What we know:
- It is a single chain.
- By secondary structure, the chain is α/β, with parallel strands linked by helices.
- It has 22 helices and 9 strands.
- The chain has helices spanning 16-29, 42-52, 68-77, 93-101, 114-135, 137-155, 161-166, 193-205, 232-249, 264-280, 298-314, 317-330, 334-348, 354-361, 366-385, 392-403, 410-416, 421-432, 436-453, 459-465, 471-482, 486-493; strands spanning 7-12, 34-39, 56-60, 83-88, 106-109, 178-184, 209-216, 219-226, 254-257.
- A 5-stranded parallel β-sheet has the order 2-1-3-4-5, with helices on both faces. Strands 7-8-6-9 form a 4-stranded antiparallel β-sheet, with helices on both faces.
- Strand 7 and strand 8 form a beta hairpin.
- Helix 2 runs parallel beside helix 3 and helix 9 runs parallel beside helix 13.
- The protein starts with 6 loop residues before the first strand and ends in an 8-residue tail after the last helix.
- Residues 1-5, 135-143, 283-295 and 497-501 have low confidence and may be disordered.
Amino acid sequence: MEELILYNILIVEDELFSQQALECSIDTIYPDKFNILVSDNGLDALDICQHQKPDIVLVDLNIPGISGLNLIQTLKDYDFCGKIIIITAYNRSKYIREAMSLGVTNYLLKPISLTELEKSIDKCLSLLAEENGAKKGDFDSLFSYAQSYLVHDILNCNAPQKLLSDVYGWAVDGMLDAGLLYWRPEKSAGSNIHNSYLNDATELFGKYFVMLSAVIQNSILIFLHVSKPSDTFQVQTILHTCVEMLKRKYPGGSLVLTEFVTTYSELYRTTKNCLFLAEHAPHAFLNETPSPTRIWSADDRLRLRQKLVQRLSEGQTSQLIQYLKRKFEKSDTPWAWVSLFMEALKAYDSTADLAQALTIFHSQNRFVLLEKWLYSLYIQKAALKAPARISKSQHAVMIIKQRFSDDISQEDIATELGLTPTYFSSLFKKETGMSFPQYLAEFRIKHAVSLILGGEENIDILVTSCGYHNKKYFLELFKKYCGCTITQFIHNTIKQSEDEV
C-alpha cells in the first residue's frame, strides 16, 4: 500500500552527481518516507526553506549564491525549526566547528557512506519526534482527560450523543457501528504496560476505527466505532486480525470484546454486561474474537483453506492472485474470502504480518500490491532457510523473482552483486545452465502463463505485468517458449471453470 510521505528533506548541493547520489541513497534507505527537494545554490535554498519548510536540510558548505555557513546562519536568524546536516569534502575543523556552533545536528565528510547518512538522518528524525511530542504534550494530556470523562459517561449511560456525533464522528442511532474492547493486565505487568498497550491498539485500530480510550482502575477500556460504512464481513475481518495480534503480544490478563451494535442503548447494555463479566472472571480470556460469518460448511472451508495453503506453499502466486481477485470482485461476501485467505496465510507462515496484508486489501491496487508483497514474503522465507552464504547466481535468481516486472538487465544485477557483467554472465550460465537473458525471459513467460491460467485475457496487461514494453517482441517470445500463439493459448484455457481452485 502506498504510504503517505511523512517528511520534507532538502538537498543543497551544486555537484549534480553528488546531488543524484544523495537522492538515490535516501530513496533506498527510506522508501516513500521523504519528499525530496533539491537546490544547487544558497539563495534558491533560502526560498525553498521559507515556503516549503523542510524538516531536514542537507547542505554542502561550498555552494554558489551564498555559502553554506551563511545559509545556516540566515536560517537560524529566522528561527528555522528544521534539522541541518552539513556536507563537506574537506575536514577543515575551523568551518566545521563554526557550523556546529550554529546548532547543526551533524556533519558528513565526502564521500558519504550509506551507514553514516542513515545515522545522521535517524538522529534528526528522533529529535523531530521528541520536539513534536513535547509540543503536543499539553494538548494530549487535556484530550486524554476529556476522553476519560466521556468514557465514564458512556459507562453510566449518560454520554451526550451529539458530542459523540459532532466531535468524534460517531453515527446516529440506528446507524451506529460500535463496540467495546476491555483489557485488564496481570498484576505482575510493569507500570508502562498501559501506554504500550494503548499505543499498539491505536496503531492497529486507528486506520479503521474512531477510538475513545481510558485507563480506569488499572483496566483499559477502548470504544471502537467504524470510521466509515463497511459491510459486516469487513469489520469482523479487521477485528479478527487486529485483536489476534494484540493477544499474541499481550497474552496475559483479562480480555473482552463486545459485539458491535447499531444503537446507543444497545451499546450501553452490552458495555454493562461486558464489565460485569470482566469483574467476576478476572485474568482469563472471556470470549474469542468473533470470526466472520461462515458461508461454507466446515468441510468446505477446510478444503478451500488447504488449497490456498497449498498454492502459497508451491509459490503459485499469479494464479492465487487471479483467483482471489475474481472472488473478491464477484462475490456478495468479498471480505469472507479475505478472512479465509488470512487463515491460510497464518497457517502457511505464522510470522507473516497479517496487519500489513489486511492493509493491502484496503488499497485501490490491492491485488498488484498483494502479489509484490507475497514475492517479498517468499524471498524472506528463502533467506531464513538458506545457508549463511548463498552463491551470486542464487542471489540473482532471487532478484529476478522479486523484480521481474521491472526494467532489469544483466548489467544492473552484476553491478548490484559487485561483479563485472562478463564474469557474472559466465558464472550465471555455469551454475544455472542458462544465460541470464534466457532465464529472465523464461521466468516472465511462465508468469504470463500463470496469469492466463488464473483468468487474465487482456494481452496488454500480460505484456506490462511481465516487464515488457514491446508487445510484438513479447508475442514472439511467448510463441517461441509455448509453441503456440498467445491467442491460441488463451482460447485453449478459457473453458477452465472459474470456480476451480
